[in-house]
C-alpha cells in the first residue's frame, strides 16, 4: 500500500494552487477523420475523472491535446483559468504516466526521478530531498540505484508514477498505465494510485478502455465514442442509468429489451408487462435490465414480472455464475447470480427456470 505522505510543496496541499481543467469546443481532424468532434469538459479541483471509450473513440487524441502533444483545430484548453491551448507540453506543468512507463533505460531509479527536476533547474540538495521523499511515498526506498530492467513491471510503474508527481504538477494524466500488468497486480495498483491521488489532492485525468477499471477508480466517467462525449456522470450513473444504447452496451453486460409503452405500462413480447414508476413517451421503448437484476427460481416468485425460460448455458465465474436464458418467444437474456460454497446451480443446461424482475430494476434507455 502506498503511504499517505505528501511531497513537500505539492500543489493542492493547502488549497491555494489546486487547479481545474476546462476543455471548450475541442475539434481535431486528421484528414477526413474527425478525432474530436467538439468536446466540452470540466474537471474539478482534486477530481479523478476517467475518459472511457473503445479504440478510435478519440480519448487518446483528447489526452494529447490536454498534454500539449496535439494542437486542436478548434477550441480551447484551460488550466487553472489560463489558456494553454498553444503552449508546448514542457510549459504546462503536467505530469504524465504512460502504459509503457517511458523510463530511461540507461538511468537508475534516482536519476530517472531527478530528470524532470534537473530540467527545471532545481538545486541539487532539493533534488536529493525530493527523490528520497517520493521513493518513500511509493515504497521504493531501497531501489534508488537500480536500473529499470532490474525492476518488476509493478515497480517500474511506481517509478513512472513517482516521476510524474515529483515536480508538483498542476494536473496528472494517466494513459492506460496498467495495461501491461497482470490482473492481480493491476487491481492492487489501481487502489494504490487512487489512494495516493486522494491524499495529494491531484486533479487527475485517466484514460482507459477497461470499464471495470473506470468504475473502480473514478469520481466521474466521461464515456466517449466517435470523438464525442456520450455521457458524463458518476460510476453509479453511467452503469445504472446509461444515456444511450451505446453506453448501456459498452459498460458492463446488458439485457436490452424492446417493448411498447402505453402510459406507464410497457408490454414486452415474450417477456410480459410491467408498470414503470414514471411513464415514458408512448410507443416503442427499450428497457435495460442488468444481469444481476434478474431473479431466478424461488427468488422470482414474488417479482411483479415473471416468465419461464430455458437455460441455454451456465458459465462459472468463481463468486458468481452467469446463465444464458431463452424465454419462449422472447429475446435471449443474461442473468448473473452469486454463488456460495456448496450451493447448487440455480438450474442446469436444458432445464426450465422461473425468471423475474421488478420495475425498479428496469431503466428506459433513450432511443437513437
Structure write-up:
The chain is 23% helix and 33% strand. It contains 8 helices and 20 strands. The protein has a 6-stranded mixed beta sheet with strand order 6-7-8-3-9-10, with helices on both faces. Strand 4 and strand 5 form a beta hairpin. The protein starts with 20 loop residues before the first strand and ends with a strand.
DSSP helix fraction? 10-25%
Number of helices: 8
Which strand order spans the largest sheet, edge to edge or round the barrel? 6-7-8-3-9-10
Percent of sequence in beta strands: 25-35%
Tell me the structural class.
Answer: alpha+beta
Cα-atom radius of gyration: 25 Å
**Number of strand elements:** 20
Question: CA-to-CA gap between the ends?
Answer: 45 Å
Q: Mean pLDDT score, rounded?
A: 90
Shape: globular
Could you give the order of the helices and strands? EEEHEEEHHHEHEHEEHHEEEEEEEEEE
Keywords:
368 residues, single chain, disordered N terminus, 23% helix, 5-stranded antiparallel sheet, 8 helices, alpha+beta
Amino acid at each position: 500500500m502506498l503511504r499517505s505522505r505528501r511531497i513537500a510543496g505539492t500543489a493542492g496541499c493547502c488549497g491555494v494552487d489546486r487547479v481545474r481543467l476546462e476543455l471548450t469546443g475541442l475539434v481535431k481532424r486528421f484528414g477526413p477523420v474527425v478525432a474530436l468532434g467538439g468536446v466540452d469538459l470540466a474537471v474539478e479541483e482534486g477530481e479523478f475523472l476517467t475518459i472511457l471509450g473503445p479504440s478510435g473513440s478519440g480519448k487518446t487524441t483528447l489526452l494529447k491535446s490536454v498534454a500539449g502533444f496535439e494542437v486542436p483545430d478548434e477550441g480551447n484548453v484551460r488550466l487553472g483559468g489560463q489558456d494553454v491551448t498553444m503552449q508546448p507540453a514542457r510549459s504546462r506543468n503536467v505530469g504524465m504516466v504512460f502504459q509503457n512507463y517511458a523510463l530511461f533505460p540507461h538511468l537508475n531509479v534516482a536519476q530517472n526521478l531527478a530528470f524532470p527536476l534537473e530540467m527545471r533547474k532545481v538545486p541539487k540538495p532539493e533534488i536529493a530531498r525530493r527523490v528520497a521523499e517520493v521513493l518513500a511515498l511509493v515504497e521504493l526506498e531501497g531501489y534508488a540505484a537500480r536500473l529499470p530492467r532490474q525492476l518488476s513491471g509493478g515497480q517500474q510503474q511506481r517509478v513512472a508514477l513517482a516521476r510524474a508527481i515529483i515536480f508538483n504538477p498542476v494536473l496528472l494524466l494517466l494513459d492506460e498505465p496498467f495495461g501491461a500488468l497482470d490482473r492481480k497486480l493491476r487491481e492492487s495498483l489501481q487502489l494504490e494510485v487512487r489512494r495516493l491521488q486522494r491524499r495529494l489532492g491531484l486533479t487527475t485525468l485517466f484514460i482507459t478502455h477497461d470499464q471495470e477499471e473506470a468504475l473502480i477508480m473514478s469520481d466521474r466517467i466521461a464515456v466517449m465514442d466517435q470523438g464525442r462525449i456520450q455521457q458524463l456522470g458518476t460510476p453509479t450513473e453511467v452503469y445504472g442509468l446509461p444515456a444511450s444504447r451505446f453506453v448501456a452496451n459498452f459498460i458492463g453486460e446488458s439485457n436490452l429489451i424492446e417493448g411498447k409503452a402505453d402510459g406507464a405500462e410497457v408490454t414486452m413480447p415474450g417477456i410480459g408487462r410491467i408498470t414503470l414508476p414514471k411513464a415514458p413517451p408512448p410507443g416503442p421503448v427499450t428497457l435495460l435490465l442488468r444481469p444481476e437484476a434478474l431473479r431466478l427460481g424461488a427468488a422470482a416468485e414474488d417479482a411483479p414480472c415473471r416468465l419461464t425460460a430455458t437455460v441455454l448455458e451456465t458459465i462459472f465465474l468463481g463468486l458468481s455464475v452467469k446463465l444464458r436464458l431463452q424465454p419462449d418467444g422472447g429475446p435471449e437474456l443474461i442473468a448473473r447470480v452469486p454463488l456460495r460454497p456448496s450451493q447448487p446451480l440455480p438450474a442446469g443446461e436444458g432445464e426450465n427456470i422461473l425468471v423475474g424482475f421488478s420495475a425498479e430494476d428496469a431503466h428506459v434507455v433513450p432511443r437513437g
